[in-house]
């Protein structure tokens, strides 16, 4: 049955509310990136504060005290575990209870856990890291819940002509979160540095323990600023009409936010949508027959790209030591500032352009082609870095290497890192849409854990096993080729069709 309200959603012109929804939905992704990318400079601070007396963690090459190589991977891994759980739980609740009702709850979990990260009252290294790990797990749960809800809400509000660009714009807020984390880190450390004036090789000042807490807690502000607007959002018209079976209420909600008259979208008062007696439950034989292939394609693609993407992020520790090693200062604040500056440059030159290339091209080229292109270019770059690594790049990380390294981020975001977020929000029926997006995202975070643990074990500062790094870089290239194959055989194109047409 063709409903006027759904047709109006698919054909609505781009309006102010669409851009407002992008900002409201994007703040969760902004906070996700902020909390992930503020961790590398914070680990430099934690290493100086809590491990300064440990000769086992002292690197004579750059006078840096660093946390044990498995601890930083563990802090990432526990956040990814929380994210996977949040995606599954909030994704399912978004279909059972409603997108809007769960939207505010996931954001509140993010806000409180971000504040909790800075309120560890412990003073011993192990106690601080356990406390930080606990709150980062909770933070991951909130972030994970935000993924399926943000993607689903944006897809159900958007028109079919620009839906891909709108969802990609929501996801692109990650790029600004990365940049914001770097700027905040540099500003906070700069203020503390100016106030304390510690000398080189001097014992780390006690005030530095406040700096990392402040950086983490500031990440709660953007999310808190959008909480009110999330609670004021109406339920999506598609959920109200197709899941709650209340077409009249869907029309009224749509009139509140979009420039469309009720007379254009109101159905006959006698119209009812009885529950389809042949409706099938999640993971039933009929569900798997109709949607199992799509769910496998979305989950496998997200799993593979997250192995590569988060391994690339951990590879930055290697680049810090090699490319910036001589520029490192023994001062704790300057140390963190240099790491944050490197991340900011990489975000401006590579990460953010990749996101916005997807925003511009996705409704022109299509999701499937962009995803295949991204996997292919990433594979070629990893082979170019990995195969000659020990003979050329090992002691020669120069401008050429940095260009290649930047391309991995450019084509991850102008490629599968963005499209895997978009496609699951377009393929599945309304009553399974949030759940299936959560399942796909959780599979991705399992891949992120593999990337964090696997690459973290081989690469750490200047003490990495060069042969292991070379092997892992080549493996990452192979993973990208596998992602290309999965996309080719299992990912359909969703461009230019309504959500209901894609479902069929």
From TrEMBL:
Gene Ontology MF terms in the entry: symporter activity
Topology term for the membrane: Multi-pass membrane protein
Gene3D superfamilies, alphabetized: MFS general substrate transporter like domains
Any one Gene Ontology cellular component term annotated for this protein: membrane
GO biological process: arbuscular mycorrhizal association; cellular response to nutrient levels; phosphate ion transport
Localization of this protein: Membrane
Pfam families (UniProt xref): Sugar_tr (PF00083)
SUPFAM superfamilies: MFS general substrate transporter
Major facilitator superfamily (MFS) profile domain sequence ranges: 21-495
Keyword Calcium: no
PROSITE patterns named in the record: MFS, SUGAR_TRANSPORT_1, SUGAR_TRANSPORT_2
InterPro entries for the chain: MFS_dom, MFS_sugar_transport-like, MFS_trans_sf, Sugar_transporter_CS
Keywords on record: Membrane, Phosphate transport, Symport, Transmembrane, Transmembrane helix, Transport
Family named by the database record: Belongs to the major facilitator superfamily. Phosphate:H(+) symporter (TC 2.A.1.9) family.
PANTHER family assigned: SOLUTE CARRIER FAMILY 22 MEMBER
Protein name as catalogued: Major facilitator superfamily (MFS) profile domain-containing protein
Taxonomic lineage of the native organism: Eukaryota, Viridiplantae, Streptophyta, Embryophyta, Tracheophyta
């Amino acid at each position: 049955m063709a409903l006027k309200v759904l047709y109006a959603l698919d054909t609505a012109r781009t309006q102010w509310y669409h851009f407002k929804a992008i900002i409201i939905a994007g703040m969760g992704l902004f906070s996700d990136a902020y909390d992930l990318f503020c961790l590398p400079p914070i680990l430099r601070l934690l290493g100086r504060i809590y491990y300064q007396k440990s000769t086992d963690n002292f690197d004579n090459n750059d006078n840096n005290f660093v946390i044990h190589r498995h601890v930083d991977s563990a802090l990432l891994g526990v956040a990814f575990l929380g994210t996977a759980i949040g995606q599954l739980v909030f994704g399912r609740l978004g279909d059972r209870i409603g997108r809007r009702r769960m939207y505010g709850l996931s954001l509140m979990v993010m806000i409180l856990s971000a504040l909790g990260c800075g309120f560890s009252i412990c003073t011993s290294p192990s106690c601080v890291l356990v406390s930080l790990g606990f709150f980062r797990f909770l933070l991951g749960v909130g972030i994970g819940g935000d993924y399926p809800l943000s993607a689903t809400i944006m897809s159900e509000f958007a028109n079919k002509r620009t839906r891909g660009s709108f969802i990609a714009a929501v996801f692109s807020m990650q790029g600004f979160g990365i940049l914001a984390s770097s700027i905040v880190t540099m500003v906070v450390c700069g203020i503390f540095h100016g106030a304390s004036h510690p000398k080189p090789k001097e014992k780390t000042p006690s005030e530095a323990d406040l700096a990392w807490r402040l950086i983490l807690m500031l990440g709660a502000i953007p999310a808190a600023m959008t909480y009110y607007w999330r609670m004021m959002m109406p339920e999506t018209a598609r959920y109200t009409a197709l899941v709650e079976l209340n077409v009249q209420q869907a029309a009224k909600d749509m009139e509140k936010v979009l420039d469309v008259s009720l007379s254009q979208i109101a159905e006959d008062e006698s119209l009812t949508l009885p529950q389809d007696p042949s409706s099938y439950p999640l993971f039933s034989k009929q569900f798997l027959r109709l949607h199992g292939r799509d769910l496998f394609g979305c989950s496998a693609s997200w799993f593979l790209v997250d192995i590569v993407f988060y391994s690339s992020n951990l590879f930055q520790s290697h680049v810090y030591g090699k490319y910036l090693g001589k520029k490192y200062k023994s001062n704790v604040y300057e140390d963190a500032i240099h790491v944050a500056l490197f991340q900011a440059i990489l975000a401006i030159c590579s990460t953010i352009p990749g996101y916005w290339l997807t925003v511009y091209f996705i409704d022109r080229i299509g999701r499937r082609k962009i995803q295949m292109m991204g996997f292919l270019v990433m594979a070629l770059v990893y082979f170019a870095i990995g195969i000659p690594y020990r003979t050329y790049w090992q002691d020669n990380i120069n401008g050429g290497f940095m260009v290649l390294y930047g391309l991995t981020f450019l084509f991850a975001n102008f490629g599968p890192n963005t499209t895997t977020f978009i496609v699951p929000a377009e393929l599945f029926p309304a009553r399974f849409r949030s759940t299936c997006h959560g399942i796909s995202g959780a599979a991705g975070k399992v891949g992120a854990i593999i990337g964090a643990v696997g690459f973290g074990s081989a690469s750490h500062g200047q003490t990495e096993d060069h042969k292991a790094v070379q092997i892992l870089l080549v493996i990452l290239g192979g993973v990208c080729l596998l992602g290309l194959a999965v996309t080719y055989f299992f990912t359909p194109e969703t461009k230019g069709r309504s959500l209901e047409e894609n479902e069929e």
